[in-house]
Amino acid sequence: QKEVEQNSGPLSVPEGAIASLNCTYSDRGSQSFFWYRQYSGKSPELIMSIYSNGDKEDGRFTAQLNKASQYVSLLIRDSQPSDSATYLCAVNPAYSGAGSYQLTFGKGTKLSVIP
Amino acid sequence: EAGVTQFPSHSVIEKGQTVTLRCDPISGHDNLYWYRRVMGKEIKFLLHFVKESKQDESGMPNNRFLAERTGGTYSTLKVQPAELEDSGVYFCASSPRGTLDYTQYFGPGTRLTVL
Question: Does the beta carbon of B43 lie under 8 angstroms from any beta carbon of chain A?
C-alpha cells in the first residue's frame, strides 16, 4: 500500500526561526510532490509543488526533493505566527496508465509559530 | 477567478438517510476529484472525473456511494444509505487538463456527520 509519512507534531518554533517539515513516501515511482497548508476548518491551500530532485524556492518557502531517499521536505524561513497551520505532504504516484492523478496524503504536521 | 465551491458546508443526518454533496470546480477545469478525511486519518482519494467520465473510482469505499458529473460541469456525491463510518470531511478538487501543472485546487469541504 502506497504511504506518505509525516511527523504529526506539533512542531513549535519561535517567530523568525526556520521551520523544517519532513515527509517520506513509499512509492519509488512517484513523480509529483506537493505541500499544502491547511488552516483549521479551511481547504488545503497549495504552498509548493516540486517534480525534480533538488531545491525549489518561492519566497520564504523552500521545497527539497530526494527521490533516491524517497524524501521531501519544506523549509519555512523567518516563520511568522500566520504560518501556524497543518502542513500536508501529498504525492502523486507513478502514472497509473489510467490517466488518474490521485494524490496520496500524509496525515499532516501541525506547526505552531510562537510570537 | 472563483475557486472550487462545495455545498453544503455542513450536513448532519441520521443513519440510513441519504445525503447529496455538490461540488462546482474552477471554470474550465476538466479534472474533478473527490477526497474524504475521516477523523484522525489522512485525506484519502475517492474518485476522479475527466469531464463527465469516471477516470478512476478505485477509492470509492462501497456501492452506497454514487458520484455523477452530468455535462462535465458540477459533480454530486450521493451517500445512500448513510452509515456512521461515513462521517468526515468530503473535499472536492479540480485541475486543468492538457498542461504540465498537476496542481489540484481544493474546495472548503463538506463536513458530514452521521448520527
Answer: yes
Give B66-111 pLDDT, tens digit per residue. Answer: 999 988 899 999 999 999 999 999 999 999 876 666 789 999 999 9
Radius of gyration of chain A from Cα atoms? 14
Chain B CB contacts of A106 below 8 Å: 42
Other beta carbons within 10 angstroms of residue B24's beta carbon come to: 18
The H or E element spanning position B88 is strand B88-95
> What distance lies between CA B33 and its chain's CA centroid?
6
Here the contacts of B63-71 (C-beta below 8 Å, separation 24 or greater) are B67/B34, B69/B32
Helices and strands, counts by H and E, chain A: 0, 11
Cα distance between residue A11 and residue A109, in whole Å: 7
Q: How confident is the model at residue A31 (pLDDT cuts 50, 70, 90)?
A: confident
Q: Compute the radius of gyration of chain B from its Cα atoms.
A: 13
Q: Does B108 sit within 8 Å of A102, measured CB to CB?
A: no
> Which of A96, A101, A106 has its CB closest to that of B42?
A106
Instruction: Kindly identify which residue of chain A lies nearest to residue B33, measuring between CA atoms.
Output: A102
Task: Report yes or no: A94 at the B interface, CB cutoff 8 Å.
Answer: no
Best CA proximity match to A46, nearest among A58, A29, A55: A58
DSSP B16: T
Cβ pair A46:B45 closer than 8 A? no
Q: Are B43 and A34 in contact (CB < 8 Å)?
A: no
Closest of B26, B102, B71 to residue A100, by C-alpha: B102
